[in-house]
Amino acid sequence: MSLCLFQVWDLADPDGKGYLDKQGFYVALRLVACAQSGQEVSLSSLNLTVPPPKFKDTSSPSLSSTVSASGELHWAVRPEEKSKFDGIFESLAPVNGLLSGEKVKPVLINSKLPLDVLGKVWDLSDIDKDGHLDRDEFAVAMHLVYRALEKEPVPALLPSALIPPSKRKKSLGSVAGSVPGIPASPPPPKDSLRSTPSHGSMNSLNSTGSLSPKHTLKSGQHSLNWVVPVSDRGRYDDIFLKTDADLDGFVSGHEVKDIFMQSGLSQNLLAHIWALADTRQIGKLTREQFGLAMYLIQQKVSKGVDPPQALTADMIPPSERSTPSLSGYMTPVGSEMAALSEMRRDSSSSVGSGEFTGIKELDDISQEIAQLQREKYTLEQDIRETEEAIRHKSAEVQEMQNDLDIETASLQELEAQKQDAQERLEEMDQQKHKLEDMLNEVRMKCQEESQMVRRRGRTGGCGRN
């Protein structure tokens, strides 16, 4: 079924936006209905006549209660999830099988969920209300965090299916509170990301300098200047307006791909800069977040200054300093986040992005950058081969041109010789005509001499007679 949900999401969100518009949501519902009717999950099935889709729990399908053959509710935390959560639990060094609020705090905060949501998660998972989380309670907390990361609302009361089997006899009140008609105790305060005062295990979350809603960054950060220079903001804003093609006030990874690639920075560095700028982890950047990303890129390109591991106070966009956002400026806890990220990627119930950082757009950019680099290398190779072929052809053309020049010179020489021969031929014709005239004159003289001789012969014959 999880693979089916992946297919439904991919078909409903073909552009990889990470969210569904009205048409995409309609397509998703139609595909779910087709899957429930045994039809193929494909766009060709959209025109089939099938019953409407059915959901057991309209608020959160993943938290729907399932009952075993014996009548006992199955635990919503799946075994593969539980094993991963147990590994994270052990890495936090529990004392007597319990984790204090101080040890759980970094893991919860690094989920980058709002503090009021984390407060609800803590109060729901601390089933015993002892200010500590045991192994099963920690698994409940992690399960709720990941459902919240998948945009599912955190329930006001813990569903029966989420109560660990080991605690179901101890938490009849919680079960009763989830059944209609039985009054439930009021939900805990939203800023109660802490334990009861008597235990004091989570007091540090509400102490001075904490990140609870009562002690946000509002008071201190309004007086801080923004690290992005005023002289550059206008230029970044102009680029943002030109890049925001759909005019929704955000730019996606696809829209900024070309701009990021022009920097020549590595894929990992660009992904890190995106993660810092995308403070709310929605896969898109606002105008200020885009300006911050451009500033960090410019610092690296022009000055060689590496971006920080986490945003400093003066880097946080001004419009976000009045909100208890936990996104870009908390130092991650390496081992916990690695385990959480691995769990998120492997979770077969996830429908959205498979990355814990929420920068699916950047992953697409990285793949496209790698593809473009491969294409660039291929094109450069083709260019080099073409240039080599051009050099060979140019050499051949030059050689042929040299031959042509030689032949042209020979032709010109022959033309000159022809002209000389023609002139000599004309002179010889003139000499011929002269000789012919002289010959004619000689012939005429010869005839005259002949006639004179004949006359003299006749005259002498007559005298003798």
Tell me what you see in this structure.
The protein is an all-alpha fold and 465 residues long. Among the domains are: 44 residues, Recoverin, domain 1 (Orthogonal Bundle), CATH 1.10.238; 132 residues, Recoverin, domain 1 (Orthogonal Bundle); 127 residues, Recoverin, domain 1 (Orthogonal Bundle), CATH 1.10.238. It contains 14 helices and 4 strands. The protein has a two-stranded antiparallel ribbon with strand order 1-2. The protein has a two-stranded antiparallel ribbon with strand order 3-4. α11 crosses α14. The chain is rod-shaped, with a radius of gyration of 47 Å. The protein starts with a helix and ends with a helix. About 22% of the residues have low confidence. This is Epidermal growth factor receptor pathway substrate 15 like 1.
Brief account:
The chain has 465 residues and is mainly alpha-helical. It has helices at residues 2-12, 22-36, 79-91, 101-109, 115-125, 135-149, 172-177, 218-221, 230-243, 253-261, 267-277, 287-303, 334-346, 360-464, and strands at 99-100, 132-133, 251-252, 284-285.
